[in-house]
Design brief:
The chain has 11 helices and 14 strands. The longest helix has 20 residues. It has 2 domains: 139 residues, 3-Layer(aba) Sandwich (D-Maltodextrin-Binding Protein, domain 2), CATH 3.40.190; 99 residues, Periplasmic binding protein-like II (D-Maltodextrin-Binding Protein, domain 2, 3-Layer(aba) Sandwich), CATH 3.40.190.10. The protein has 256 residues and is α/β, with parallel strands linked by helices. The chain is 41% helix and 26% strand.
Amino acid sequence: MKISKIFATTMVLAFASFQVQAGALKDILSNGVLKAGTTGDWNPMTMKEAATNSYTGYDIDVMTALAADMGVELEIIPTEWKTLVAGITAGKYHMTGSASISPSRAKAAGYSISYFSLATVPLTLKSNAGKFKDWDDLNKADVRVAATLGTTQEKQVKQYFPDAKHVIVEAPAQPFQQVLSGRADAHITSNVEANKLVAIHSDLMIVPVSAPKSPTPIAMLLPQADQVWINYVNTWIKLKQERGFFEDLDAKWKVN
């Protein structure tokens, strides 16, 4: 009886291992579709065109190239930052676009190797140029600092500015819109998005801080237990890096 239980347990574990081995990669190749989750609200990484319900950006180019090299179709799955990890763990999509690497996300999801890095900077109105000159100027009780719910920046706002008021907005609302409308004095974002925002909105400026905070690599979120799929994506990234694909994207989207 004991031997039978051991055998049964071994078979269950073996079957579970087989399911992991035959996970996302087999599903993608069998069905001819790569499902990728993206938020569509992070310029220039992923941007949704409301009029056409289509997506453009650095991430979209990466996903499109991966699907093409696999010989499958790309299906974009709309998601939000607050549900980005949940979508991976629930199997709603095989991967996500770029996401900051963080220990909290890594508890539930896997990551590809990193192909890009960013840092955090604050933005404010140009009319505040004399008021906000460094990080400490924003950490005051009468200052309102905005961020998006579920993002790395939401945690950073609370970490960097414990004495300030936190204006946490939920997508599709954008924190820079809170600044433009006067509902917040500043917001924080990646240096990549900050450069795009100040180019588009002439009223905005990057606070001339002594240095950006939290340099962070970014990567794709993948199913944590699916090492076969993780290995495949990592191999693809390394090959594309060697052939200059990501350098070309950096130049196209002006992220450096």
